[in-house]
Amino acid sequence: MSDPSRSTLVPPPGQNLTHHPEAPSIAGLRARLGSPKRKMLFLWWVVFSVFVFWAPLRTLVDYSLRSGHEFDKYSHIPLVPFITIVLVLLERKAIFKNVQYGPWVGILLLLIGLMLNFSAEWAGRQIGAENPLSARVLALVMVWIAGFILCYGTRAFRAGAFPLLFLFLAVPIPGALLDIPLATVQYGSAEVCSLIFTLAGVPVLREGFVFSLPAVLIEVAKECSGIHSTLALFIVSFLAGHFFLPPVWKKLVLILLVLPIVCVTNGLRIAGLTLLAAYADPSFLSGNLHRSGGIGFFLLALLFLYIALHLLQRGCSAKRLAPRLPGRGTPEARGSP
User: Which residue from 122, 211, 229, 325 lies 20 to 30 Å from 200 (Cα-Cα)?
Assistant: First the structure.
């Protein structure tokens, strides 16, 4: 007669009833083991590239810390790499979900970046920059992206395309390219000023960008275009469109609305200061309100941009918006397995 307790302890021949915890998949194990190596490789890549491009980086930081209208286009640049890091951390689960080495594409971008760096003098003259700084910083950004693709692959690059391409905002805008938006803001601001003077019933004589009022003569110059606030609004529009507007065409509309918004707020500022100088005190054109009052109109521009964003969000369901918001709409946030 067989022993029941013995039969439960001894497995039948050819079978193993011993319970083992579920073994991790080979792919998952390789990803976990390879992740520190990839991180260290990419970190060394960035450190070495900073060493190679130290001279243009030092010049770029120096320009960004200077004051003056000619250096306003550099003021936002130190923030761009930090914003990119934050974006990558917020979207790290999607970006590093499927990583692999991408040698061919990475090496190709690396060669293009190095060629651009070595030919910076010629490239800088071709794009109209005052010096080859723009070309060298562009080469550095391409080297960083090449290193990312080498370490993490093209799939990770596609998942993190926005944070990585956002780095191109750190490239100084050549003067020839910057003249177009500056001229647009200058013309738009003058038109808004003229409209305000007309609605207010103020007698004014206009000759191009020059307005003659009683006891006051002003000119809407390019320096009044507010390049610093314009670039800041462009950055905000890029980020807002990325997180809150899934359709690409709505992102583009929000970005294109930045220039009209700047024209309106800039025109309001210039017209307001001019009226105060003409009918109250001429010192308003050179006082604290003229020097420090731009922050208030920048906040007004942000309000207009928020209203535009709210209107563009109509028709975008919450389900489509949720995946872009960190911590929402994901299985981890809902507590599902």
Answer: 229
SS3 percent helix, strand, coil of the chain, rounded to 5, is 70, 5, 25
- Out of 157, 172, 187, a domain closes at 172
248: phi > 0 → left, psi -120 to 50 → alpha, else beta; which? alpha
* pLDDT, tens digit (0-9, with 9 covering 90-100), for 95-147: 999 888 889 999 999 999 989 888 876 655 555 445 688 889 999 999 999 99
Q: What are phi and psi of 41, to 5 degrees?
A: -65, -45
Backbone angles phi, psi at 192, to 5 degrees: -65, -40
- Answer yes or no: pTM beyond 0.85: no
- Asked if 33 and 164 sit in the same domain, the reply is yes
Residue 282 domain-assigned? Answer: yes
Whole-angstrom distance, CA of residue 335 vs CA of residue 136: 47
Same domain, 239 and 291: yes
In terms of residue numbers, what domain contains 131?
26-172
The answer to whether residue 269 sits within a structural domain is yes
With contact defined as beta carbons under 8 Å apart, do 228 and 72 qualify? yes
